Amino acid sequence: MTTSASAPLPASVLEALARYDTPTICNAMEIVAPERRLIGYTVKPLVCPFPTLPPMVGYARTTTIRSVLKSGLSAEEQSKRRIEYYEYVGTGFGPRISVIQDIDGPDVGYGAFWGEVQSNVHKALGCLGVITDGSIRDIPQWAPGFQALAGSIGPSHAWVHAESFGGEVRVAGMTVRSDDLIHADSHGAIVIPYEVAAKLPEAAELCGRRETPILDIARSKEFSLEKLKDALKRSAEIH
């Protein structure tokens, strides 16, 4: 792994964000950036083979792939493209998260770009995991601790190859640009604008405080509708 530029945010901010699950970050975003309430996160289900892994927070490395059609490049050109791709993934500020859009249309997921080899290579290059609407495979041989959110699980890689990298991609309804800050766990992923990232931990704590009186009464053996009404009122007064 190499680094060619200073990260736009202190590592402490990313570490603080990683203490919360992605739904909590989404709740916090509703407070600090309400204009993004309908955008910037995955809205379609993704498979997560490793649901017990902690949340990952990192900068996006974007790629498009296809597998139904064979690459039109010669073997030499394909080799050169592969090295260029790995250089892109392994440089810049980190940690990084690979975000890959499968552009095979109705055949999305036909061939798996991800498996034992790519998960281990990308982990070595400084990636924390992958978010893709394509397919993945080799789950038992997957790189330990490398997270995956994928459109499907399949057996073959068909003619899979990287079509482009470094541009804008759209995965499960989430639009991502290279170097966007991503927060993801088994629930899905969200893009965090740099300018609000440092505000999210405090907002997440506020969300927790507002939920506490409601949860306390809901879990109590002395629950009643009147007590719920009172808890909702007290929750709304917490700032």
Automatic annotation (TrEMBL):
Substrate binds at residue 137. Its cofactor is Mg(2+); a divalent metal cation. The keyword Magnesium applies. Keywords: Magnesium, Metal-binding. It comes from the Bacteria. The keyword Transmembrane does not apply. CDD domains: RraA_family. One of its GO terms (molecular function) is metal ion binding. Mg(2+) binds at residue 138. This is Putative 4-hydroxy-4-methyl-2-oxoglutarate aldolase.
